[in-house]
Amino acid sequence: MSQWSQVQQLEIKFLEQVDQFYDDNFPMEIRHLLAQWIESQDWEAAANNEAMAMILLQNLIIQVDEQLDRVSQEKNLLLIHNLKRVRKLLQGKYHGNPMHIAVIISNCLREERRILAAASMPVQGPLEKSLQNSVVSERQRNVEHKVSAIKNSAQMTDQDVKYLEDLQEEFDFRYKTIQSLEQNDKNSALIKQEMLALQAMLNTLDYKRKEVLSKIGRVIHEIDMLVSNMLTEELLDWKRRQQIACIGGPLHGGLDQLQNCFTLLAESLFQVRRQLEKLDELLTRLTYDGDPIPVQRPQLLEKVNFLLYNLFRNSFVVERQPCMPTHPQRPMVLKTLIQFTVKLRLLIKLPELNYQIRVKATIDKNVSTVSNRRFVLCGTHVKAMNMDESANGSLSVEFRHLQPKEMKTSAGSKGNEGPHMVTEELHSISFETQVCLYGLTINLETSSLPVVMISNVSQLPNAWASIIWYNLSTNDPQNLSFFNNPPAATLSQLLEVLSWQFSSYVGRGLNSEQLNMLAEKLTGQQVNYNDYQLSWAKFCKEHLPGKSFTFWVWLEAILDLIKKHILPLWIDGYIMGFVSKEKERILLKDKTPGTFLLRFSESNLGGITFTWVDQLENGDVTFHSVEPYNKGRLSALPFADILRDYKVIMADNIPENPLKYLYPDIPKDKAFGKHYSCQPNEVSKPSDGGGKGYVPSVFIPVSKILNDSTEPHSPSDLLPMSPSVYAVLREHLSPTAIETAVS
């Protein structure tokens, strides 16, 4: 079943989450019509390879054209219209930046997998629940409503200022007309009446000036309250969601909505600023005793400028955190002399700023770290923000060719730092720019979330553990001394993040039973998730009991094994994986002989084994576990083929495959058949001879079990099958069974 088919079977609350991340950037119609083709492409790799992304974009357009031809024959007018619109979108938006569509589709597929994993969990995790708080959603709607109301109020005040300007022009004209009359004419009754009318008009002018200033004051106050309270909270929430997304959590949306709010508020403030300038013009042409303009205008203008400064400073954000293209799911871990990318956005999108803002990137500026190591950034570290590179037209800049380089320090300083010390050092990448607009000059600064610098890829697992722990434990964006005294983490939240590592990295999260096993491994006991606090040392620094490695190194090795060697089997859900030996026997003891399950080794790094249940002649139940397969052995033979071809030679030398049913009762071939590397074929007889005079051979995994042993001896995997062994197989097994053993 395709991933999209699984998504369509979700409950409505999960379907609503899916609906949130499909928009005009990647319409859901295309996801639906091209589901299988989309899922068969490597969008993750294309997101970091422009040539590959361009090929995929062109192929995507070809696929859309084929769908368009099909629906044209069916005369489906609505679908024809939508597909033409989508084709125009793909060609127009992404032709100049094909990697952007690859990033979008990769993120959508990843988010679908995360939601599918969440749907399989009995209870939503505490972190994800907090991110989807209904109070937050209500506040978002309130912010958008208030911003719209403020924009309308500023526009209405424009009309009041225009009326005031017209009224003053009429007053000026009538006043100058009277002033031009001869002295004798000024004493006439008609003129006296006109003077009374002018006085009444001046009173109206005074009233209108006070009214306009009052309205301007209210608009400024509403903007101040909105920015200080609700909008600031919205921005902080977005930054927290970004932190969580960086460590595998739900994708963080909402930046476009924030941009809309920031931009409308900035436009309203500039509009108010122009209104105050117009009042200053009116003041130079007419003033009087008790005139409110010279008293109130300077204070209002100062407040407007202050709000603009504050708004601009908050609007300068890191849209996409630093990340090496070679490790897209390990952001904020940077290797020396390896390029990384980072993207910034100014949430105030004004056409006047296009290509006018130059951003400079630096590292560890004005901050002290816990390390003696110092770095500089090589590559293009100054670029202009523009609206052309982003598909959504945002005012942004993406640095794609930055490289951190370690500076030479005093001799011996680097040698004093252990591996954990290096991966617990936090550094900061800073960005600065200057905005000059309408007479205002505003200096802007922002920083990435803390990054970890490594010099060898072997340090990446522990560095990623540091990134996870930091972003799980704090929303402080710049606590570079965090690991001087790292706080404990709530076990329930940590387990949720660990499940995210699997859903984001290998396409399927962990269920409650698997998480229970991890919890027991971390704590050594059964505990209450919500109450238990786990230390950083327990997670990443202390060795597991009786082992030479930490919990995190063990888990990271399993992730690597899944990603490189058993990914399809993991995604299908056929690998139980995290189950102890004791629990394994409880599950299998009442099952049909030949029932087996797959679990990850607890004693070997990056190993997977299978255990099957058997029944002795006296009726007793026995269990057999094969020596774990590691990545070296799985590189030689696919794991699905191992399960298909595995043979056990008993004491009487009769080989047989003991694996019949995947727990609980799924026929082995039904579970793994589609993953076999090839279908069994007729094999050549030994007498046929091989190429260049050699006897043909095949590879099969074999174990030998003696009568007095309940466990297989170390299996001799990948043994070449000699003619004598083949003859034994022909004697005791059917041709179909032999064919099944051939890879």
UniProtKB/TrEMBL annotation:
<dbReference type="InterPro" id="IPR015988">
    <property type="entry name" value="STAT_TF_CC"/>
</dbReference>
<comment type="similarity">
    <text>Belongs to the transcription factor STAT family.</text>
</comment>
<keyword id="KW-0597">Phosphoprotein</keyword>
<dbReference type="Pfam" id="PF02864">
    <property type="entry name" value="STAT_bind"/>
</dbReference>
<keyword id="KW-0832">Ubl conjugation</keyword>
<dbReference type="GO" id="GO:0007259">
    <property type="term" value="P:cell surface receptor signaling pathway via JAK-STAT"/>
</dbReference>
<keyword id="KW-1017">Isopeptide bond</keyword>
<feature type="domain" description="SH2">
    <location>
        <begin position="570"/>
        <end position="672"/>
    </location>
</feature>
<dbReference type="InterPro" id="IPR036860">
    <property type="entry name" value="SH2_dom_sf"/>
</dbReference>
<keyword id="KW-0013">ADP-ribosylation</keyword>
<protein>
    <recommendedName>
        <fullName>Signal transducer and activator of transcription</fullName>
    </recommendedName>
</protein>
<dbReference type="InterPro" id="IPR048988">
    <property type="entry name" value="STAT_linker"/>
</dbReference>
<dbReference type="InterPro" id="IPR046991">
    <property type="entry name" value="STAT4_CC"/>
</dbReference>
<keyword id="KW-0238">DNA-binding</keyword>
<dbReference type="GO" id="GO:0060337">
    <property type="term" value="P:type I interferon-mediated signaling pathway"/>
</dbReference>
<dbReference type="GO" id="GO:0005654">
    <property type="term" value="C:nucleoplasm"/>
</dbReference>
<keyword id="KW-0727">SH2 domain</keyword>
<dbReference type="InterPro" id="IPR001217">
    <property type="entry name" value="STAT"/>
</dbReference>
<dbReference type="GO" id="GO:0005737">
    <property type="term" value="C:cytoplasm"/>
</dbReference>
<dbReference type="InterPro" id="IPR013799">
    <property type="entry name" value="STAT_TF_prot_interaction"/>
</dbReference>
<dbReference type="InterPro" id="IPR036535">
    <property type="entry name" value="STAT_N_sf"/>
</dbReference>
<keyword id="KW-0175">Coiled coil</keyword>
<dbReference type="Pfam" id="PF00017">
    <property type="entry name" value="SH2"/>
</dbReference>
<keyword id="KW-0805">Transcription regulation</keyword>
<keyword id="KW-0963">Cytoplasm</keyword>
<dbReference type="InterPro" id="IPR013801">
    <property type="entry name" value="STAT_TF_DNA-bd"/>
</dbReference>
<dbReference type="GO" id="GO:0003677">
    <property type="term" value="F:DNA binding"/>
</dbReference>
<keyword id="KW-0804">Transcription</keyword>
<dbReference type="GO" id="GO:0000981">
    <property type="term" value="F:DNA-binding transcription factor activity, RNA polymerase II-specific"/>
</dbReference>
<dbReference type="Pfam" id="PF01017">
    <property type="entry name" value="STAT_alpha"/>
</dbReference>
<dbReference type="GO" id="GO:0051607">
    <property type="term" value="P:defense response to virus"/>
</dbReference>
<dbReference type="GO" id="GO:0051093">
    <property type="term" value="P:negative regulation of developmental process"/>
</dbReference>
<dbReference type="GO" id="GO:0060333">
    <property type="term" value="P:type II interferon-mediated signaling pathway"/>
</dbReference>
<dbReference type="InterPro" id="IPR035856">
    <property type="entry name" value="STAT4_SH2"/>
</dbReference>
<dbReference type="GO" id="GO:0042981">
    <property type="term" value="P:regulation of apoptotic process"/>
</dbReference>
<dbReference type="InterPro" id="IPR013800">
    <property type="entry name" value="STAT_TF_alpha"/>
</dbReference>
<dbReference type="Pfam" id="PF21354">
    <property type="entry name" value="STAT_linker"/>
</dbReference>
<keyword id="KW-0539">Nucleus</keyword>
<keyword id="KW-0007">Acetylation</keyword>
<dbReference type="InterPro" id="IPR008967">
    <property type="entry name" value="p53-like_TF_DNA-bd_sf"/>
</dbReference>
<dbReference type="InterPro" id="IPR012345">
    <property type="entry name" value="STAT_TF_DNA-bd_N"/>
</dbReference>
<dbReference type="InterPro" id="IPR000980">
    <property type="entry name" value="SH2"/>
</dbReference>
